[in-house]
Write a structure and sequence with these properties.
583 residues; Lipocalin; Immunoglobulin-like; 8-stranded antiparallel beta barrel
Amino acid sequence: MLRRLRLAALAALLLACNDSTAPKTSAALDGVWDWTGHYASSNPGVVCNDTGSFAFTQKDSSFTGQSQHIDVCTGANGGPFHSWDSIKAGIVRGTAVTFSIFVPNGGGSLCSDTAVLTTSTGTLSGIASCGSATITFEAVRATAVTSVAVTPDTARTVVGGSLSFDTDLRTALGARVFLRDVTWTVDPASVGTLSALPIGAQLLATGGGTATVTATVATKSGSGTMIVAPPAGLSGVSAGDARTCAFAAGGAVSCWGAGYAGSAFGQVPVQLATALRFAAVSVGGEFACGLTSAGKAYCWGANESGQLGNGTTTDAATPVAVSGSSTFTSISAGYRYVCGLTTGGAALCWGENPKGQLGTANTTAVSIPTSVSGGVAFASISAKLNHTCGVSTSGTLFCWGDNSVGQLGDNTVTQRNIPTHVTGSQTYTAVSAGASGTCAVATGGVAYCWGTGVGGFYTNGTNQLTPVAVAGNHLFSAISLGDDHACGVTAAGVAWCWGANIWGQLGNGLKTSTATPVAVSGGLAFATISAGVYFYSDEGHSSHTCGVTTGGITYCWGDNLTYQLGNGTHPESAVPVKVAGQP
């Protein structure tokens, strides 16, 4: 009996060894594979082609790894899209391969991959199921890299700022590949220090100058140039919606926060790539304008309403000249329009005009500078969301455009397409239009506000159709109104702010809103101040404030969702923080 049991066990073992369904020796996948993929999206007309690489780390029949690729799609949202994903739960049974790829988009999703290794051709072919998309792919063992390029080829920042670089690796056939061992260097090392990232490298600027950033794969290298501006004060600043721009004493303009159409900024000031030098800058809604010392106007960014003033509606990543031969003394960028004053005090405006904010006696948009009606000679002008105000050379205050909440100050809510006299006998020295209100400094320094804001904080909680004196008995020399808060500077340089304070935009160390001005913390003496305005709902908040001290150093405070404070960090600040790259 015992002998028969032993014979039966031996027979079963032999049968199992000959069974074609039993697992065979696992194929060797360890290492880097280059792959191409193709899929048609469930969205009609969207077809994508992928180029990427897998890096497998195998132990027996299981493996993990990384996947990196570029998506290029036709149709909506065509890319390219760069993705770096984790490979999980990989199993090899004979030549059959399964694994999952974790894609960290949104809350994260998994793609289930099934593939077969063809040993005769050395190819790994399969299908990836990613939600409603099915991707077919084919991979081969990594081929040699024959060219290395660093992107971007040129980048600018300031001391204390950081830049990210990536590589574009190509094979002899021109295919882009990834996941190679890359060695990064910077020369001279005094300009910055490099840290490798999962994709590319990050350079922290530690000193002013120009450096070469080099990436090397095996024997092939490529390089880019990093230009770091030395520490310098900023002479003028304009806080916009989700971004800020300023100019240095030498006239170079730098911006930070959310980028404009065709250009990207960042956590610290990025100098505009132009040889032009500016004496004034004004940030509008996703665009900006500046004046040279010779009074020539240039604008850059989005141009859907002709707000760049060059006779087109084409976006521009770098400054383009405003049409005409006018010489300007001041310029103010609104939401999608601009107004400027010539040397003779004539007001010219251009861009969108649905509320008559151009002051041209109609609501027609124009893409070149057009004279404001009425022939008033102005000393200052301020554009914002949908209304404009200006102080005449005799101190009379006029406003025009949207008046739905009394922001024109003429004791009505009637839209005005031409300059209309603000109610009252006061004369004024400064004015600032806000998103839905106006503030001005009367002769003698008393500040008045009217219209409304979110919560009506700067107008004591109600719509005001005529000017109302600001509480506190402070005398101001300059004033700036944003979306729902205002700030003013006294002759002694003390900054006071009032209104909504959800993000600390009043700068007093608190987040409590108030209709009474509170002193900005820090004991700084300011020469100018600029309150940000909230134009775009899809760019987050823009309740921030910036000011330039009498010593020429720029500070910002308040919301920092899009890095509009320029100090290289993300959290908001209820007290002034110094913008990076200054002494």
